[in-house]
Batch of 2 targets.
Target 1
Amino acid sequence: MELRNPAYYNNRELSWLAFNERVLQEALDKKNPLLERLKFLAIFSSNLDEFFMVRVAGLQDQVKVGFAKPENKAGMTPKQQLNEIAMKTHQLVDLQYEALQNTLLPKLQKEHVEFVKMKDLDAEQVKGMEVYFEDYIFPVLTPMAIDAYRTFPMLLNKSINLAVKLEPEKKQDEEGQKIAIVQVPAVLERFVQVEPEKNSHKLVLLEDVIGFFIHKLFHGFQVTSVSVFRITRNADMTIHEEGARDLLKEIEEELRKRKWGAAVRLEIQQPGFDLDILDYLTDELEVHKKDVYVIEGFLDLTAFFNFYKKMAPVWEHLVFEGKVSQLPAGMETGKQIFQKVSEQDVFLHHPYESFEPVVQFISEAADDRDVLAIKQTLYRVSGDSPVIKALKRAAENGKQVTVLVELKARFDEENNVHWAKELEKAGCHVIYGMTHLKTHSKITLVVRKKEDKIERFVHLGTGNYNDQTAKVYTDMSLFTSKRQFGIDATNFFNYLSGYTEKPEFHYLSVAPFTIRTDIIELIDAEIRYQKKNGNGRIVAKMNSLTDKVIIMKLYEASNAGVKVELIVRGICCLRPGIPGVSENIRVRSIVGSLLEHSRVYFFNQNGKEKLFLSSADMMTRNLNNRIEILFPIIDEKIKDQVETILELGLMDNVKAREQDAAGVYDYVPRKDDEPALDSQMELFRRAYRVAEDEE
């Protein structure tokens, strides 16, 4: 059988849209609290923004230069992909706004919060809003006229703007209609509160307030129409690494350019937009008609992120029940973390278990007089990172601190440039990775002296050193003081920072060198065990699966009879359940209140189970173009813990969807007598029970 047949694969971009559709389903789910549903609308919109800025922009660039070669899995040309993306995205956006207008906003009204139009306010309310406009909004606005001397302005990416059509009030003045653009200031509150009534809140959109009083900006002219629109630009960065004498400066320059990339999407609000203005904007921005989205409602629903943040403390009955991360067993005894890890490996499952021990590990190392060196990779960190603070303090305390800050972490480049400079000022040795490769691995090495010996402590994880995302992303990490892990970590950092051949590792498998080949060898071994003993089984959990070589090997395993169970949150180019190809493969996606982010790979190996955690998804970019780490779980007790987590994911019948042979996802059906199992909530319950048993 020809396993390269395009019919056996999902297109990467359409599979991503299918994932974002699952996010939208959470906004439609009546079982979710109201504020959470609004937040899922915001997540859906934010995801879509990034998708257009990077993936759609890249495909459009290919079409512009005449590239028409089909992609190597589903066999679709760039133009075919763009057509399918546009058709599907229009359907999803229509569904999103139908849910907002017909379901969620009416539910908000029942909570005494109403979005109203300026034209619906009474005279006294309008007067109050006029005072607010003149005092707070008017001074910030800058009308931008368009004529022979003032060309169409370069509008900021993701900004909301008003296109204003004008006519001179005095006919003897220059004839003809004029057009001006007014950008809605992002620094002001998007939802403006009308004078609050008792037990009620009326909110007006900032752009509606500006539009209502827009005439105040154009004395001597009559406003004939106001059209609200938003543009999305190509935000992918082209970094010329080979010629860059200073990568940090190169990235700073590219960050300045990012705001002004080619327009890839135009959203315009109806009712109220002017058809002539739409044609004018489409021509000026050079946007294809299929990338114009006429929105039935207000633009940019990412505004609900701030709305959620503001209202969640007030409306506790409209958000998910708060879940508190627990300390893992044995960590609350008051022992120094070094003492604990020197006795046994320690496993953490975030956010069910707290991220605090990771922060504590680095913080204790910074202040411990016996610590000689700290080495760490950083991909994404929080805005006020306690990890960064500890590393700076360590350098100030005289430790040898080496930090690899990945400057090319998409949409975190500016943040990482800032932290790189801060760390350098504190005396840390900062490196930026390797040419043409992103360093996506999550590893920390602490070197400590104990009497006359050197001991090494290693932390490895599936997620970033970000104390904020650790509260909402599910990730796994391991502390170990095993000697060979320490040697591997030392060699890994020396390889990243200096000139040396790729080292041989005892435990670590590192991309782009060996992860793919090691995974293939493990699958091949599973195939052999299946043929000999009939007990082949693979369970893998990841964010995305796109690598064709790995997919074909999984198809081969399925044909040999190996039972393959995949938990893939996002993109999955593999299609399960195809007779003679993937009939022994099952694919499910879990989308719930937490973002599934851990990467886990299990192989039965004839009962000698092998289990690995990794920073890497099975994506071609991760395996070819990134520095990633795959590491084994050696401790049998920890291995049992992780396998239990996998099994719970495979049993989820509340937030899990399964993919069929056509690539379509549906909720996992539940039998009448089968109890509901939400794997995320069950893991919180189990963490609580362990914490109670420790007391």
Target 2
Amino acid sequence: MEGSVDDYRRLLDRHGVTWGEKLIPYVGEVRTSAYLMNGHDYWSACFRQLGGARRDMDARMGELDLDRVVRDALGGDVLDNLAALRLTPEGCRLEARTLAVLDETPLSTTLLLDSGMPEEVTVTVDGVAHVVPPGGAKLVAITSASTVVAGEPIDLGALTRRARAARVRLRAGFPCRWSVTSGDGQGWYPRGAVRALDARLRPYFHGDDLELDVPAERLTVSVTRGMEYGSATVDVEPAPGEELTVELTPERLYDAAARGWYGGDLHVHLNWMGDEPATPERAAAAQIGEDLHVLNLVAGNVAGERVYDRELLEEWVGRDLPWSDESHVARFGVEYRNDLLGHFSAFGLTGMPTRFHSGFGDSPDTHPNSAPLAELRGLGAVTGYGHPFHTDLSDTDPPDRAVAAGRNCSAREIVVDAALGLIDSLDVLNHSSIQATAVVYRRLIGAGNRLAVTAGTDAVLSISRRGTASSPPGWERVYAWVDGPLTAASFAEAVRRGRTFATTGPWLELDVDGHRPGDTMRPAEGDTVTITARTVGPEVEWLQLRTADGVIAEGGPGLLTAELTVREPTYVVAVAGGGPHPRSMHPGGAYAHTSPVYIGDHVARRADVEWCLRWLDLLEPLLDADGTFASAAQRAAHRELHDQARQVYRARLREGRAIA
């Protein structure tokens, strides 16, 4: 069946990790991320080779020598999965991180042919000649048993070292996330497990009562279970031939479900290119091993017409996936994608949509995002824009940087769809700029729009080595307060009502005179309300209480209280954060943000409304410069929608709802 794991494996075998997708920037990044991880300046290497702005990269990506990009980005470093053969006038030199092996099975890896020669060089690998241009580079798949000849045979002995074997058995008493490493950082996995690395380069896998073949040497074993747990670590040293049982259980930091709160990841891909096509069984192991209450596996395209996992969506739409239980719900949903207007996810579908993307390949920007949003909402889905903004934005910045030129997946149409009531939420917690998204979010709710804070990691289970994409689902979560049993419908309704907070790990609780996020209070002018925020989590360094006018109180972690005298309609949110921490996989550190408690029915600040109107003005030249339309009518449809949103915001000014 087209779209099956076997089909995806055939694409992988034929095309490599891009699965034959058109070479656009993020496809090129997946290709190079098979070798590079965090800390390597991939995009700088791209810029140096292209010599242009990022908005030109789609058109010029075909000019890019990605093998050379890998070499340049590494800057001479040697990775565990990428040995280098340096070809110089003085001779050839193999550089490699030596990896332990337990038997005679050859190690599969990749060899970077790195030429410093002024002329072409031919290197023969297993009888196949590879021509490396002057000063160029080439990546070649090899094993430790390969024959490599560059003028003379190359000794590949540095690739591996033979270690005596032992076995460890891992038990926690319930499914968890495990990491087993030897002294040099090499990861060890159960047989058949995907060799995944998270954003901090930690090897990991999921399960309980697992057996691993390991070297008989000092090992570090760590276990955790998602953000509601701490981690436990022990060093062991099994003897050769010994089977050593390690019993290790992570400590629970908080129990959200006991308080009626359930954590979800609304943006996870099962398959979306990568180095190992993923099965639903892998998603099940990850969800239960992370104790992730709600998992939304989204079908979506990459750069063309193919919609990955569409067949699974057709089979399971409207139904819980088989491993769901009273505390874990898994569904298939959709990521609708338009790289000019923004991407959004849909959770809780009751039927199949007819639209999945626009603006890719030969497909023009046929319609505004409002059309698929209306269809998805009609199918019962709760919707939210994902990975919205990629450049930092301060509270005082105009929206110009957020609406910068280029097709870069930014959520440009969020200001339109929010005004027209077409979108339910915004992934303030995402893999891109949390700070910029939080600023935009607060501007939107300050301008009279009602949106929930949500979270979507954009984790991809078919990718094992690419920063946050290869981190486990649920490394960021939206917690929603559910009134009653957990179901897909009850969770979606809680998000729709704004009963949420989103977090990289900390628990964040907000109370305003007994009201929680999503509630609307109606105190009389001059009344005083008491605001309380609480946090749990070792990564929290600061805590803020904010209204539409900005920060009204801040302090350290734990508990923060303030009083507010009501003068006009406003909102209250709590925000918490901290620097880099082992519990946070976001490069920006720890962060949590609540949805608002609304004070008054019509919250709208003049400054925020005018900020949104400025955003709408910026959309017109953006569409003229970067939009692709098959007809004047298609372009007009976008303009008409923007005019409708403009009328909504202007009405808020005319009706006196916007406060100076």
